[in-house]
Specification:
This protein has 212 residues and is α/β, with parallel strands linked by helices. The strands form three sheets. A four-stranded parallel β-sheet has the order 3-2-1-9, with helices on both faces. Helix 5 links the parallel strand 4 and strand 5. The longest helix is centred in the last third of the chain and has 15 residues.
């Protein structure tokens, strides 16, 4: 059962379905990136903890971009969860499945999506009452892998991450993805380095349009 504190976050994630995975070299770029994505219609923003000063950035975005639902990515440990508490992220995502971390996130009433790769891991996450399970790296597995997982386990909610762009997103959803994590194509590192925020906005629009 989903904890009361994360029901609204889950409902929004399942409604909007596109999570922008933001991994930056410079946290000062974060506000411009988030605003550019929101302008294009992508309002679920995941800030990877590998970004310098990621916790402070999450806190700033929560205040400065109220249209967005801001979460944390690359959450690996209980220490990561504890460090995030002051920033009050609305969701958290991990590339791995660790039952101890899942349980702590549940205690904190935080929507938490751990990463899985195999059917066994996906089922283990479901047994831990994970409401939406990250499938990673989806670029290596492809959209059909999602339907392969859901054929014997239709009760799983899955969020493939990796390999998502405007040419693949519809196929991921057609194959059963309940949400997607979009990183490298959407959060274009070269465009960010050049300060080309309109490029991010246009890519966000293209993803939203492809999904509609």
């Amino acid at each position: 059962m989903v904890a009361t504190g994360c029901e609204q976050a889950l409902a929004r994630m399942l409604r909007e379905r596109i999570v922008a995975v933001v991994r930056l070299d410079d946290a000062d770029q974060g506000l411009d990136v988030a605003r550019a994505l929101v302008a294009g219609g992508v309002t679920l923003i995941e800030i990877a903890l590998t970004t310098p000063d990621a916790v402070d950035l999450i806190a700033r975005l929560r205040k400065s971009v109220p249209q967005a639902m801001v979460g944390a990515g690359t959450v690996l440990t209980i220490a990561d969860l504890e460090a995030l508490r002051s920033a009050e992220p609305e969701f958290a995502v991990s590339p791995i499945l660790d039952a101890v971390v899942v349980r702590r996130a549940q205690e904190l009433r935080l929507l938490f999506s751990p990463g899985t790769y195999s059917p066994t891991e996906a089922y283990a996450a479901w047994q831990l009452d994970v409401p939406i399970i990250k499938v990673f790296p989806a670029a290596r597995l492809g959209p059909k892998y999602i339907s392969d997982l859901k054929a014997p386990m239709p009760f799983l909610r899955l969020m493939p991450t990796g390999g998502v762009d405007d040419s693949t997103i519809r196929e991921f959803v057609r194959c059963g993805a309940d949400a997607v994590g979009a990183g490298g194509w959407l959060v274009d590192a070269q465009a960010i380095a050049r300060g080309e925020w309109l490029t991010l906005t246009e890519k966000a629009r293209r993803l939203v349009t492809a999904l509609s």
